[in-house]
Task: structure prediction
Amino acid sequence: MTDKNKLAQLFWSFLKIGALTFGGGLAMMPIMQREVVDKKGWVNDDDVIKMLVISESTPGVFAINSATFIGYKIGKFWGALVATLAVTIPSFIIISLISLVFYQFKEIEVVMYAFYGIQVGVAVLIFNAAIKLGKKIHFNALSYLLLVASFAISWLTNISVIYILLASAVTGIIIGVFFTHQEVTEDVS
Result:
């Protein structure tokens, strides 16, 4: 496949992803995974998990970070540029059009109900993506403990998810270093 053909496929794939995604970045995960893993084979599930971690822990919009990550993996600089532009074009057009008629739309009861339905659908998409990606993660007792504790803290308190993410990362590093140090000590003795 030529570089131009690869960039054209990348553009159309991410244009489609951007056009079909409602509800923000995480709602994009199942669509993106189907397109770039299942259909195109550009990346694998491990790459998607890495992309998810990097995209969620770096500043910026998830969709743009993800498109840039995959685009770079496929076509370096030009791939990142093409994928990023393609994923943002539909949102830009849709938001521009909605902004012209938003106040007239929001008063229509049917439109309000449609948005409620879309919210439920987005929640289901996010849940399904979490379940599918969760199957690829190598869980141990620490992982389950951090998962339950993080969920409980975010559910029961007003602590920012960013702080919970950072605390989980630091906890994982500390415990990982402790167990690695303990294994090295046992091997030496």
Remarks:
- Residues 138-189 form one domain.
- The longest helix spans residues 62-105.
